[in-house]
Design brief:
Elements: E1 7-11, E2 14-21, E3 24-31, H1 36-56, H2 75-85, H3 93-107, H4 118-130, H5 135-154, H6 179-191, H7 195-207, H8 211-215, E4 222-223, E5 228-231, E6 240-243, H9 246-255, H10 270-283, H11 296-307, H12 312-319, H13 324-327, H14 336-339, H15 341-355, H16 359-363
Antiparallel strand pairs: 1-2, 2-3, 4-5, 5-6
Helix pairs in contact: 2-3, 2-5, 6-7, 7-9, 7-11
Length: 384
């Protein structure tokens, strides 16, 4: 079998890779228990990596065993395994599939997984910024890649996971729906005959569920006698129970009629929900409001609870936030607790005034300008 240029056999199941560019040379030897075609594929991928390192002035990545059947993995291998064994049959599967396509396009399917290093990630983040990606979008992409790299490390296909950069998200305005906006939105959807979407909007406002959680709801997840629903599949893998208000009980009770326990209550895909939402948004004159998105319904539920005085820890459990810091973004919407400090400050000033009569007037007495040089002090007689 004729080997490609720069690759030659140096023993049983052993290949020598040699790359030279502008007087610089990189070599490595690959071996392992895998079949010869598999080792050749690994050698070709290594050749690409060495050539890329020379072109960009990088040091070659040194793997502890780059043979097929050993610890060698390409980015494609890591993506395939993670999609099959980590994200399969989860609410985020479709979104992760799309992100993986973009990851493979940028990093290259045949790039060794150990060639994904911190400087590579920083360059990726910079390219995403240049394309106009928002910080939240960049962080979601980084989370997908982070899971891929950690999966490879857990299977001993990656020696060290590089530190994943996170882009700080500035806290902006939280967009929530007013009562009038909610009523107009639901009425518009029902007027168009989109009762399924109108029901979804009402339920999301009343429960604070994520759209994906709502679409995944099955009839068996609803317990009308107990007035609650159970969320088993969600973003944070934290099953939770959410109480139901009267409006949502009526909607879900009607939709459950004649359903089997495993039937979904909302039989549409997210793209359909988003398309109808966007049409209604434009109809209501909110087409330029980029924050008027489906997730604003979850913000609406959280905001109403905060303004009603519900403790922040209860809101955290209700929404299924793993980290309290995420829930605290809503806390500033209810300044009532801050006003509790006013009587304490007023009381302190009143007590001080009672203990030292006249002190308040002395405290606020306007300072007098100094007497000019040679002028008699206050109370002194003028010279004759």
């Amino acid at each position: 079998m004729e080997l490609p240029r720069g690759i030659r056999a140096v023993g049983d199941n052993k290949l020598f890779v040699d790359v030279t560019y502008r007087g610089q040379r990189r070599t490595t030897t690959l071996s392992g228990p895998g079949d010869y075609p598999d080792i050749l594929s690994a050698a070709l991928a290594k050749q690409i990596e060495l050539r890329s390192a020379l072109l960009h002035g990088d040091e070659p990545v040194r793997t502890k065993n780059s043979a097929a059947g050993g610890t060698y993995w390409t980015v494609q291998d890591a993506v395939d395994y993670t999609l099959t064994h980590v994200w399969a049959a989860t609410p985020s599967e479709h979104e992760c599939q799309l992100e993986c396509v973009r990851i493979l396009k940028y990093f290259g399917a045949h790039r060794p997984i150990e060639a994904v290093r911190r400087e590579t990630l920083d360059a990726w983040v910079a390219s995403l910024r240049n394309r106009g990606n928002k910080n939240a979008t960049i962080n979601r992409k980084l989370s997908v890649l982070s899971r891929i790299l950690h999966t490879a490390a857990e299977l001993d296909r990656l020696e060290t996971v590089p530190k994943i950069p996170r882009v700080r998200r500035p806290q902006g305005r939280i967009r929530f729906l007013s009562d009038e906006e909610e009523s107009l939105l639901i009425a518009t959807l029902r007027g168009w005959g989109k009762s399924d979407v109108a029901d979804a909007v009402a339920v999301l406002v009343d429960t604070g569920l994520r759209a994906g959680e709502l679409i995944a709801l099955q009839a068996r997840d609803i317990d009308l006698p107990a007035q609650q629903i159970s969320i088993w599949i969600n973003k944070t893998n934290l099953p939770r129970t959410v109480p139901l208000v009267e409006r949502t009980r009526a909607i879900l009770g009607q939709r459950m009629a004649d359903l089997e326990p495993t039937d979904r209550l909302f039989r549409f895909k997210y793209w359909y929900f988003r398309a109808e939402w966007d049409k209604a948004r434009r109809h209501l004159g909110l087409g330029d409001d980029k924050q008027f998105v489906i997730h604003a319904l979850r913000h609406t539920c959280a905001t109403r609870m905060v303004k009603s005085g519900v403790p922040i820890q209860i809101i955290q459990k209700w929404l299924g936030h793993r980290n309290l810091q995420i829930t605290l973004q809503y806390s500033h919407l209810s300044p009532a607790d801050l006003h509790l400090a006013l009587p304490l400050l007023e009381g302190r000033r009143s007590n001080a005034a009672a203990e030292h009569p006249g002190s308040a007037s002395r405290e606020h007495k306007e300072p007098q300008p100094p007497d000019p040089p040679g002028f008699p002090k206050t109370g002194a007689a003028f010279p004759a």
